[in-house]
Amino acid sequence: MGFNCGIVGLPNVGKSTLFNALTATAAAQAANYPFCTIEPNVGRVGVPDPRLDKLAEIGKSAKIIPTQLEFVDIAGLVRGASKGEGLGNKFLSHIREVDAIVHVLRCFEDDDITHVEGRIDPLADAETVETELMLADMESLEKRVDNLTKKAKTGDKEAKTLLPVVEKALAVLRDGKPARTAVLTPDEVPTFKLLQLLTGKPVLYACNVDEVSAATGNAFSARVDEMAKRTGARSVVISAAIEAEVVSLDAAERQEFLAGLGLEETGLNRVIRAGYELLGLITYFTVGPKEARAWTILKGTKAPQAAAVIHNDFERGFIAAEVIAYADFVALGGEQGAKEAGKARIEGKEYVFADGDVVHFRFNV
């Protein structure tokens, strides 16, 4: 099960610098001119989780394998992208394929780095990108609505399911709001996701600040945070310049460097965790002498489907899941101690996994 976040934004806001640091590679060319990223670059990163290290220590595991999140660096968007300006069509098609959007906003002043709009205003930048995405969504839905209306009148089942969802999305878009603000019934949510609307995806604003503002943020990032809270999005402060430096340091040097800047951890860790949460994901663990491993599932996933993340045979032949809560596993010194204390549970097919569950699956194929 793969989950990915598309890194988007106007040209020269630090998207590719951030991507390079995220993936600790130079896969994306970072340069001071628009459209230096022509095709989306993809990188997979481990999700930082200190619980995994603790479990590996208790289980005396030879290897530690974190869960992963995929980041896609997408070419910079400019005003008019919905009409094909710049690399508009490619930009929009690549965004349509991701699960969530990490929108990098320039929250720093630097005369040496040009801004495509000639000014520093992260809220205006956010509005530019959001407007282009909304215009593209409106055009997409308006092309479909007449045909769906005709089919629904003839009793077409699929059209009758789609039409009310399309109409709700169009209503908020015409009101100048992103499609994700549409009020849907629980039954309509899966249909809405199938529409693959650009503004239907959850958004994380990454406020790219200067080094001095990395620990506390600045006036620009504070305005973005207010906007994020108002619109149901999230925001994280990060300095792409600092992250680019941190990549080349070893663990000891990294901690010393960060401490000197008043930082406890890298901004990348915050971005990764926030992206993980944005997608509605949780982690469960498997622990043994060979490896301690984290696995990614959606909140609300039941045991057989959680087992399928390891292997489809686990779901097909699912018998039961032996589950120990993370806190119990740690407090009682591992699997044996948890069993002796009666904290190991046998759960069946209807069990909904909780974040941090330590699991052993029983199956037969």
Detailed description of the structure:
With 365 residues, the protein is of the alpha/beta class. It contains 14 helices and twelve strands. The protein has helices at residues 15-23, 50-59, 88-96, 122-153, 157-174, 189-194, 219-231, 240-246, 251-260, 267-278, 303-308, 312-316, 326-331, 335-340, and strands at 4-8, 41-46, 63-65, 68-73, 100-106, 203-208, 234-238, 281-287, 291-298, 318-324, 345-347, 358-363. Strands 2-4-1-5-6-7 form a six-stranded mixed sheet, with helices on both faces. A three-stranded mixed sheet has the order 3-9-8. Strands 11-10-12 form a three-stranded antiparallel sheet. A hairpin with a 3-residue loop joins strand 8 (281-287) and strand 9. Helix 1 runs parallel beside helix 8 and helix 4 runs antiparallel to helix 5. The longest helix has 32 residues, at 122-153. The chain is flat. The two termini are 21 Å apart.
The main sheet orders its strands as 2-4-1-5-6-7
Biggest sheet layout: 6 strands, mixed
Distance between the termini: 21 Å
- Portion of residues in beta strands equals 15-25%
Number of helices: 14
**What percent of the residues sit in helical stretches (DSSP H or I)?**
40-55%
Specify the overall morphology. flat
Residue-averaged pLDDT, rounded? 85
Low-pLDDT parts are 25-38
Q: State Rg.
A: 23 Å
